[in-house]
Amino acid sequence: MSGSMTREDFDAYLVPCFAPAPFIPVRAAGSRVWDQQGKEYIDMAGGIAVNALGHAHPALAQALQDQLAKLWHIGNGYTNEPVLQLAKTLVQSTFADKVFFCNSGAEANEAALKLARKYAHLRYSNILIGGFFLAMLIRELDGLFDLLSHGSWVWFALLATAGSLLLPLRHLRQTLSQLAEYTRTPYYGMMISGLLAILVFSRLFGMHGLWYAVLEENYARVVKNTVEEGSESFGYMLCLTATLGYACYFRGLARQALSPQR
User: Fold this and answer.
1) Which of 67, 170, 198, 255 is the most buried (most CB within 10 A)?
2) Measured between alpha carbons, how far is 205 from 231 in angstroms, rounded to an integer?
3) Phi, psi of 55, deg, nearest 5
4) Full-prediction pTM beyond 0.70?
5) DSSP class per residue in the chain
6) Is-contact 66 57, C-beta < 8 A?
7) Distance between CA atoms of 40 and 43, rounded to whole angstroms?
8) What pLDDT digit, counting tens, does each position of 141-166 carry?
9) In this model, does residue 38 exceed pLDDT 90?
10) Burial class, 231, CB count within 10 angstroms (exposed 0-12 / middle 13-18 / buried 19+)
């Protein structure tokens, strides 16, 4: 068949979705390719990264011949030993918990979008809550921002707040629904307890009037600071623990999203 077809046959019989090179490769070995006239080229594209291991590698050719003698394509209604072994190897050798094999970039993108929609079902509430904690972090780092300008932390906190409100407000109904669902998650109580310790009790224990009323002439500022900072640290510890719990919780949701749908 080599030499019986020409580049002009492409224009005559194929839909011109692409514009292939003027020569037709007919033979290859490794990274080298030869056309119909025997001219040698170096394949720098690797089949657009699909054939990155090179052409006609003896080990790959033998593996293909061995499989062709056993089992061909059987569709997604069944699984097979080679694909299971490959998936197992990838999971054990990488960060992934599951593997999805597909034939094209379109399928890969479709799977990524579907997985993102399943995984991010609390997306807007997470953005809102993340913005809240970012503003708190900026407030705690007020001394650092004072190096730029005294009190400049306020503007950075306002910027973070405005940025975290954009999407949640655009999808207000979904945000409210997600926030309601957040209250039913297993670590909500611990997170609220931590916030109460940070925003209420640590501020309450930091009131000079309270300590004067309790200790009177025995008031010592170091005692007030110890209790105030201890309450705040305890609150942050609760929030951190809840955050780690939520990380495990959302990881579990992602695994459920990857589970086969019956």
Assistant:
1) 198
2) 8
3) -95, 145
4) no
5) -TTTS-HHHHHHHS--SS---SS-EEEEEBTEEEETT--EEE-SSTTTTTTTT-BS-HHHHHHHHHHHTT-----TTS--HHHHHHHHHHHHHSS-S-----SSHHHHHHHHHHHHHHHTTTHHHHHHHHHHHHHHHHHHTHHHHTTTSTTTHHHHHHHHHHHHHHHHHHTHHHHHHHHHHHTTSTTHHHHHHHHHIIIIIHHHTT-HHHHHHHHGGG--HHHHHHHHHHHHHHHHHHHHHHHHHHHHHHHHHHHHHHSPP-
6) no
7) 10
8) 888 888 888 888 899 999 999 999 99
9) yes
10) buried
Q: Which residue type is seen at 221?
A: R
- The tokens for 189 are 């109580």
- Going by C-alpha positions, the residue among 204, 214, 202 that lies closest to residue 239 is 202
The identity of residue 250, as a single letter, is F
